[in-house]
Design brief:
41% helix, Pimeloyl-ACP methyl ester carboxylesterase, AB_hydrolase, 297 residues, AB_hydrolase_fold, triacylglycerol lipase activity, Rossmann fold, AB_hydrolase_1, eight-stranded mixed sheet, alpha/beta
Length: 297
């Protein structure tokens, strides 16, 4: 369904009982709400959560931002390399305001929040700009930002920057998701191909992904204000992550005064079914710390 947030129409899916504990799930770079595994969503619903997924502005079925013009990704890359200031078509803070606006439009005063990868960076801004909108907070496979942290592996960076033709698109994204995924928990080839095909059929906006990449680069090092987030925050990262190496998760946890850090040795940069219990447990820990709710077994 579409939800009006300011001048935007955000595509939203809500699962679970109306009286359930609201859980806002913020997706990462270039990915749609359908990238959250349905099985994981259903496990959270079974725990009593009202799961709210949405497409960021410019992504999926939400309002496109093509009026901002073609993103100058190469220029932004070199400016970042030399430490020069960047102008982003929109900021991560704007995406955080979208999330707060969505909760307001749904008449939800505050929610449990999960942000993954870039979505975790958006969630950091949400916690800083709209702290009253967050009960418990989970940051998965994310980063505090900053050029001092290790970059993705070279193969990953090449795949991220490549723009294949339509004939090669499915194979390209299968290769990308295989490269960033958890080596110990590979997704069967036919399942991965089906996921890619379904998402590409739903929407494909490469310029939007580039605009998000510029927004991430322009955001810089968030450690200068992350220390002001005085709340328990679950930080979860994998040692097998080739996109945001584990140093990002460790740095994020150090920057947050009340971080509760969990490191998973077999996790890459995805949400493998074998590790869903650990993700659900992290949501439960955040919920418990925010409300005193007992963890379910």
């Amino acid at each position: 369904m579409k939800v009006r947030v300011g001048a935007l129409d955000l595509e939203v899916e809500i699962d679970g009982p109306a009286e359930g504990e609201p859980l806002l799930m913020i997706m990462g770079l270039g990915l749609q709400l359908t990238s959250w595994p349905e099985g994981l969503v259903q496990q959270l619903v079974q725990r009593g959560y009202r799961v709210i997924r949405y497409d960021h502005r410019d992504i999926g079925l939400s309002s496109p931002q093509d009026h901002l013009g073609p993103p100058q990704l190469t220029r932004a890359f070199w400016r970042q390399c030399f430490g020069l200031p960047l102008h982003a078509p929109y900021r991560l803070a704007d995406l955080a305001d979208d999330a707060a606006g969505l909760l307001a439009a749904l008449q939800i005063p505050a929610a449990q929040v999960v942000g993954i990868s870039m979505g975790g960076m958006v969630a950091q801004h949400l916690a800083a700009r709209h702290p009253q909108r967050i009960k418990g907070l989970n940051l998965w496979m994310s980063s505090p930002g900053g050029r001092w942290l290790p970059p993705p592996k070279a193969q990953i960076l090449r795949l991220l920057l490549k723009r294949p033709g339509r004939e090669q698109m499915d194979a390209h994204f299968v290769q990308l998701y295989r490269a960033i995924g958890s080596p110990a928990h590979p997704v069967p080839e036919d399942e991965l191909q089906a996921r890619v095909a379904a998402n590409l059929a739903r929407a494909y906006r490469p310029q939007a992904t580039a605009r998000q990449m510029i927004a991430m680069a322009a955001d810089g090092d968030r450690r200068r204000w992350l220390g002001s987030l005085q709340r328990p925050i679950q930080v979860l990262h994998g040692t097998a992550d080739p996109l945001l190496p584990v140093a990002h998760g460790r740095a994020l946890a150090r920057a947050l005064p009340q971080a509760q850090y969990t490191e998973l040795p077999t996790l890459g940069h995805d949400l493998p079914q074998a590790l869903w219990p650990q993700f659900v447990a992290a949501v439960e820990r955040a919920h418990k710390s925010s409300t005193g709710r007992p963890e379910m077994t």
